Amino acid sequence: MKEKVAVVGAGSWGTALAQVLAENGHDVTLWARSVPVADELNQRHTNKKYLPQAKLHPAIYATTSLEEACYNKSFILFAVPSHAMRHTAREVKKVMNKETRIVHAAKGFEQDSWKRMSEVLSEELERDQASIAILSGPSHAEEVIQKSPTTVVVACGDQEVAKQVQYVLMNTSFRVYTHSDAIGVEVGGALKNIIALAAGLVQGLGFGDNAKAALMTRGLAEIARLGKAMGAKPITFVGLAGVGDLIVTCTSTHSRNWRAGYMLSQGKSLSVVLDEMGMVVEGVKTTRAAHALAKHYQVEMPLTEQLYQVLFMDKEPEQAAKDLMLRGKTNEMEEIMETW
Ligand SMILES: NC(=O)c1ccc[n+]([C@@H]2O[C@H](COP(=O)([O-])OP(=O)(O)OC[C@H]3O[C@@H](n4cnc5c(N)ncnc54)[C@H](O)[C@@H]3O)[C@@H](O)[C@H]2O)c1
Ligand SMILES: O=P(O)(O)OC[C@H](O)CO
């Protein structure tokens, strides 16, 4: 059945998801923040800033009007960065219908409140959190747009909504699994960006594959520890929204977080790196959030702690690596048993 879907956010991820939906035959309206981007999408069927090589489906209709995008739609899919979620949702609330199903695909926390995006959406849209679906998993827009086989999860307290989202998005190159652990899927997607930043940094410092494997494994351990404290099911982190996303972001040069980490290793300051990237690097703000959440939940997150000091307290990355290697001696099996 053809559905009317609004995609809110015409960056790389929103554009790639709009393409998947249009290829699946749905009626897609893509909300862009700027008029030139909307004009380019409508007239040339390209989005050069965010997906330079892509030829987009001509049926994708772009607009800068949230009302035009969101009124009378079956689904609204939020693909704006986490820092933009609350104010965008507040505007969407004014123009959307009560029965429209809500999905978000952002991977981060709100600054200062450290809330998950589904909490923010629930507050602003006055919706039960259990009705909000979360799309996550290993999925770079650059590959989705090329129809390279991709697997994702859609998590929701209401499994009927998860199945409906699975129905509208799934096709031969985009496989969607439903999931019931919304907190785990949301937290896994956000926290892997911290480890991806560290992986880029480590690679740029000339460390080898042993260090990368260590980062990913020990990164997963601390993601699971914080996730569990926040109410996630630890087993979720062995799936696509945990290990899967860690693998893709820590090993792919498509990753904005990995690239930002790499640039930092070349001696550039954080503000220069973010400027040069010109795209959202969620891991920076997420490091702040996880640092605060770790304190709040009294969970040990040594990698996050060291990255926090490198990003925000001018610590030399080499010193951070040494401090990680020589921190208090621990027993891996005991830790695994405690978390998993
Ligand atoms: N790019 C990917 O491959 C990918 C994959 C999965 C999830 N995500 C997640 O999707 C979210 C969006 O990422 P992206 O890669 O598309 O980012 P992007 O940098 O490519 O695009 C960001 C978009 O958000 C808009 N935006 C920025 N600030 C805004 C604001 N204050 N108000 C309204 N709109 C604003 C920009 O105009 C742009 O359209 C992030 O949370 C990211 O982690 C991205
Ligand atoms: O490019 P990144 O690092 O923002 O990661 C994008 C997606 O989250 C990968 O699944």
Automatic annotation (TrEMBL):
Annotated binding of NADPH, by residue? S12, W13, R33, Y50, K107, A141, R256, V280, E282
> What residue stretches are annotated with the Glycerol-3-phosphate dehydrogenase NAD-dependent N-terminal domain?
4-161
Q: Can you give the residue ranges of the Glycerol-3-phosphate dehydrogenase NAD-dependent C-terminal domain? A: 181-321
**Keywords associated with the record:** Cytoplasm, Lipid biosynthesis, Lipid metabolism, NAD, NADP, Nucleotide-binding, Oxidoreductase, Phospholipid biosynthesis, Phospholipid metabolism
- Indicate whether Isomerase appears among the record's keywords: no
* Enzyme Commission no: 1.1.1.94
Task: Tell me, in a sentence or two, what this protein's role is.
Answer: Catalyzes the reduction of the glycolytic intermediate dihydroxyacetone phosphate (DHAP) to sn-glycerol 3-phosphate (G3P), the key precursor for phospholipid synthesis.
Q: What is this protein called?
A: Glycerol-3-phosphate dehydrogenase [NAD(P)+]
What is the organism of origin for this protein? Polycladospora coralii
